[in-house]
Write a structure and sequence with these properties.
The chain is mainly alpha-helical. The protein is 73% helix and 0% strand.
């Protein structure tokens, strides 16, 4: 079971690393590319990959959570499952709700967003949808981060008895 836990941690860490790297890609794209529309296309495509990968990864992690040992803390197992569902839901909502609404808003605008006035209602709606998308990803990342520590701190095997005398070195010298 430790091997399964290590694989689960690795997959979770890969997704978390990709999510953090996505933030750098998004900022770099807008800083380097000559047109903001090109940067938006790169960010949108990268976020789509991150969200679909997250849906697959967190579905697998959720299903594999049912293969835990019987002596594990049931409360922590259920907390882990809830956090995995929250992260999967964040990926789904980010992709299928806010991603779709942002795409529809871009079509409705019909030209580069930067050409709209700062107080234009369409631009304000777009900015609000973008902010919701950012917060959704942040919630998913926090839930994944907490899940990582729950899995990493799971105890395996039989719990050892605590010695009543902390200075009992008798078993240290036995062979």
């Amino acid at each position: 079971m430790k091997f399964l836990s290590d694989i689960r941690l690795l997959v979770l860490a890969i997704w978390l690393g990709a999510a953090v790297f996505f933030i750098a890609v998004a900022q770099s794209s807008f800083a380097v590319l000559p047109q903001r529309e090109l940067a938006a296309a790169v960010v949108s495509r990268t976020l789509t990959i991150l969200n679909f990968a997250g849906l697959a990864i967190f579905a697998l992690l959720f299903l594999s959570s049912f293969f835990s040992k019987g002596n594990a803390n049931k409360l922590l197992i259920w907390l882990e499952r809830i956090l995995l569902l929250i992260t999967a839901a964040a990926c789904a909502v980010g992709q299928f709700v806010f991603g779709l609404w942002i795409s529809l808003k871009r079509v409705e605008i019909g030209r580069p967003i930067d050409e709209l006035a700062a107080d234009d209602p369409l631009r304000l709606q777009f900015n609000q949808l973008h902010e919701y998308s950012v917060w959704t990803l942040a919630v998913g990342m926090v839930a994944a981060f907490l899940t990582y520590f729950i899995i990493a701190n799971r105890k395996f095997g039989v719990a050892k008895k605590l010695a009543t005398d902390p200075y009992d070195f008798e078993k240290e010298f036995k062979r």
